[in-house]
Design brief:
The complex is a heterodimer. By secondary structure, chain A is an alpha+beta fold. Chain A has 4 domains: 107 residues, no CATH class; 105 residues, Kinase associated domain 1, KA1 (TATA-Binding Protein); 125 residues, no CATH class; 99 residues, no CATH class. Chain A contains 10 helices and 22 strands. In chain A, the strands form 6 sheets. Chain A has a 5-stranded antiparallel sheet with strand order 1-22-21-3-2. In chain A, a hairpin with a 2-residue loop joins strand 2 and strand 3. In chain A, helix 2 runs antiparallel to helix 5. Chain A is elongated and about 125 Å long. By secondary structure, chain B is mainly α. Chain B has one domain. In chain B, 74% of the residues lie in helices and 0% in strands. Chain B is built from 11 helices and no strands. In chain B, helix 3 runs antiparallel to helix 4. Chain B starts with a helix and ends in a 10-residue tail after the last helix. About 2% of the residues of chain B have low confidence. The chains are: A alpha+beta, B mainly alpha. Chains A and B meet through helix 2, strand 7, strand 10, strand 20 and helix 9 of A and helix 9 and helix 10 of B.
Chain lengths: 478, 349
Amino acid sequence: MEQEKKKSLIDNIWDFLASVKLAIVIFALISLTSIIGTILEQRAEPAKNMQILSKLFGESLAPSLYNISEKFGFMDMYHSWWFTALLIIFSVNIIICSLERLPRIWKLIKEPISPMSEESIKKLILNREIILKGKPDNNKALLADAIKSARFSCQEVQEGDGYQFFSRKGTYSRLGVYITHFSILVILAGAIIGIRFGFKGYLNLPEGAVSNAAFSGMNKEIPLGFDIRCDNFDVEFYGMSDMPKEYRSWLTIIKNGREVLQKSIAVNDPLTYEGITFYQSSYGMVPDSIGRGIFVFRLISNDGKTSNTNLRFGESFQIPGTSVSGKILDFSPALKVDEHGHAFTYSDHMNNPAVFIEFSGAGKNTFSGWLLRRQPNTWQLPDGHRVEFIDYWGGEFTGLQVRKDPGVWIVYLGCIAMSIGLFIALFMSHRKIWIKAVEDKNNTRVLVGAITNKNRAAFERKIDAIISILRKKQEGVK
Amino acid sequence: MAYITAMMTYIAYLAFKKSQVGIAATTITITGFIAQTAAIILRWSEFAELSGMGFLRSAPMTNLYESLVFFVWCLIAGYLIIEFKFKNRSFGAFITPVAGLALAFIDLTGISKEIQPLVPALKSNWLLAHVTMSFIAYAAFSMSFSTGLMYLILSTGKRNELSYIFWTLTFGIFFIVLASMGLDLLTFKVMVKPDIFIKSYLFKTSFLNPSAVVKILSWGLAFITLFIVWRYGHVLRTVIEKFDLNADMLDEITYKSIAFGFPIFTLGGLVFGAIWADQAWGVYWSWDPKETWSLITWFIYAFYLHGRMVRGWKGKKVAVVSVVGFMAVMFTYLGVNLLLSGLHSYGSQ
């Protein structure tokens, strides 16, 4: 008695977990809660969500709503316990649904197709009847051809009053649904592996700097197991605008003191070493970089003598073969001149780097002014010398997204399986056909019966095509 | 554009039931389609030349204007396929206006038609695959939406029936949103300086008007509209009944469009999107609003397919789901860009 009760409880739980209803409820719950997640900004500063809430519900309700949402983890809901729980129930539901239905489907697949009686064929959803002239045996080749033209390979059996062809196709297409369901589990498994054994971090690496670790969102250090150095960073802009066309970092991987890999990375073109991938994600100026950056100039005198020079802020240089010298007095990462002719810095990014140089030396034409890296016309000095502003190196950092995710290939595998599974499940069908020929007053009565689990209309058209072939052949014989 | 003319001829065809008019309508649609194809290819090659990135990387689908144009292209292509497959032209009278309206919307709103330079994240071979497939799926879903809605209009009669209330509400809201956006446009053109982007102006003339009177008035009008649609919905039904469309065919087209769109959406939208995100942002899934809304859309259509295939639901029940699904599509495509912020904000201007 006691045992029976227990069993029925387990059965109830099982039935509950196997039900399509649960699947629907889970679909709905995941969707609805996700909507909230898209409205409230995830992992954002409190003020931002406070603003969103007061915009939607008014100033008075916002604080209490904020507290409620915070309690339930809506500010970081995709990582909250209950969202994880929803995903777990979703997976369990998929597993149990499949376990519940798979044996039945497997039986259907394994069950051999067998000939049918006249009455049963007539009872099938799709059935046709046609009379052919001549005895059944004389029409055999004709029938076999017609079936072959519909791309069915068939078995044949002799019967008392004639014979019967029967065939099936796409039997395994019934498994497409399970491939799809299974692939969801594979994807989730891959995601879990990624979370458990991988990490996600960032690294802001100034030009010339070396690091052996990345940082997680909480500023925790994650050791890399090797060193990474940023050799150079550069942004290319669209024309003279400030819209970046491409930004690129030249990186070197150093393992045990040896340079093992060198690659330049850009957005959409990352670098992977020992399972850790570096993505180009942002860039910026190193704070208070003015002492660490190096100015690179090419100096050309008016009689063609050329030399290159690297300088720090405040240092001087001399134009080759002359006594003209220049001193770097000021630097701006993004220089603009307003309508009164005042120069000012308009951005924190190095969009339009400029140096202010004061020249001194022989001749009356001493000159001081801004040289802009993006505008070569400012490089020409009045006395014919030329100072090319090549680079300001060391002032910028490259923002790298650092990730290790051993599960990503499993996720992709799941994605491929899902696509294949969906294709099979939606576009292929399990079709069975029976064609029975019976002698009827020296003629042949042909019965065609068929079933399919999907897309009946298309199969019906195919069967009608078979019938019309038979009819046409018949007329040809006549 | 030719689609507007095509729309008129399709309607004429319906009115007179003359096969010549029908053929003319189809011819005009095909001509328009060819013209649009040529225009897209021209823009494509122009962009390829400008950016110097090679042909495959410069698909013209990188901002709202280009994506809407491509969406219309997919829709017409889908419609032409259906016309030839089902040998029924009546349907054209519903699809061509949508295409025409979308193009008119582009023209009126003054969405920037300039070829814009690409931000670095969009420079990828995945752009073509991801965006094309997403939009083919969107077009298939909008097909299922219009057939699903027509199915509901055709098969519901009683005013207290839930599905009747559902479709009149949906239809009414669609109408109201379109109308108020039209109002926004009118006043926008007249009063506001063009340098304020229209996005921040949405619904300012009606529901979000600073004046309380206008606000109340527009809400009142909206409810009256809803009521009228609900009260006189059967008129639409008799209109549709006159076109030789039967409910079973509509149901079948709805199912087929979804069965066609769903795997493409899964592969092109979600899977390719994930791979690309992995390449560009370093995460294949980051619960970005666009991603989340695609997932919601995916769930709704998955629900449709389960309802139909496992539970054998047919007709009204699933038609409602197909309509709801398309609302999610609309939100994924336009709503997320206009209302929510995130990584995926390329299509908002």
